[in-house]
Amino acid sequence: MGEFRPRPFPGIRRRRRAQARALGDHHPPRHPVRAPTRVRADQRRDSSRAREAPRRIAPDPVTPRVIAIHGLGLIGGSLGLALRARPDPPRVVGYDVDSGTARLALERGAVDALLSTPEMPDADTEIVVTAVPPRVALALVPLLAEAMPRAAVLTDLSSVMLPALTSVSAKPETRRRFVGSHPLCGSEQGGIRAAREDLYRGAPVIVGGPLDPGSPAERIGSMWSLVGARPSAMAPALHDALVALTSHLPQVASTGLVRTLRRTGNMTGMLAQGAGPGLKDMSRLAASPADLWFEILTLNADKVTPALELFEREIRGLRQAIERKDPELRTLLEEAREFRREIAP
């Protein structure tokens, strides 16, 4: 992935390097934070894909005959609801290890029918989707890849792509029929009761393979277009490094904020009284399911750790600038304000 480089902003004056180092080295002069070595190694093994910039596609969606969804919570249930709401819906079959979730998915109309076991897909199935916790996917993806019809393609919706990809890499034929896809949307709430038909409408979806016509990745991208999402292609190694910054780091920051507030002693009982929109926005992610995020963060630890190191350095620099009432603080705040406009216009 190369390097994460601090970016200069026109019109913002910087102090000398020695002064920046005195403020906790929040503007490192010679040592930009590098992506983990393992990311670069992954990319070297698949260099053509790793260098590929994200490509947006707008394929003419082709409705598959049958789509099988394994995992009928928020993510899988919402996909089923969106597919079945189309004027020309595919047949959607589903499976969930929790029988209560499966029954509710059927009652809510997220699926046409339930599978009795995960290994018995409909013979006409064209796309198989796994919307399960990441560590469950490591065992389920190879199992389904062997059981599904030979013309079908399989996609896993985990927030981390490389582990599931590795689980099928030993068998080239299976590997060719698998591609990860990660919808960049969701909710701090989980389960089939939180599923909704419009969850993916307008949402970006990263597909972990080249979107060549007729390829498994293009077929998966077409499925996402059917529900109003915006698919684009990105190499799996690059995806995992990117979401460590844009998704996993915000989750940890939100958790850290709430844990800090939990340690405020006799002020704790007054927090609700003083909580405004800022706190509610910043703490929302901390309400996400702990089990799911334990799996995501530990599976992507080698990408999340350097992102956290960079974040810790920035927090340390801000703290020192505040303590010293240093005018540099204004520059730090202004840089953040300007860059926020670039990444979230």
Keywords:
single chain; 345 residues; alpha/beta; 6-phosphogluconate dehydrogenase C-terminal fold; Rossmann fold; 5-stranded parallel sheet; 9 strands; 47% helix; 10% strand; NAD(P)-bd_dom_sf; Prephen_DH; prephenate dehydrogenase (NAD+) activity
Q: Mind explaining what this structure looks like?
A:
The chain has 15 helices and 9 strands. With 345 residues, the protein is α/β, with parallel strands linked by helices. It folds into 2 domains: 131 residues, 6-phosphogluconate dehydrogenase C-terminal like domain (6-phosphogluconate dehydrogenase C-terminal fold), CATH 1.10.3660; 180 residues, NAD(P)-binding Rossmann-like Domain (Rossmann fold, 3-Layer(aba) Sandwich), CATH 3.40.50. A 5-stranded parallel sheet has the order 4-3-2-5-6, with helices on both faces. It has a 4-stranded mixed sheet with strand order 1-9-8-7, with helices on one face. Helix 2 runs antiparallel to helix 10 and helix 10 packs across helix 14. The N terminus is likely disordered.
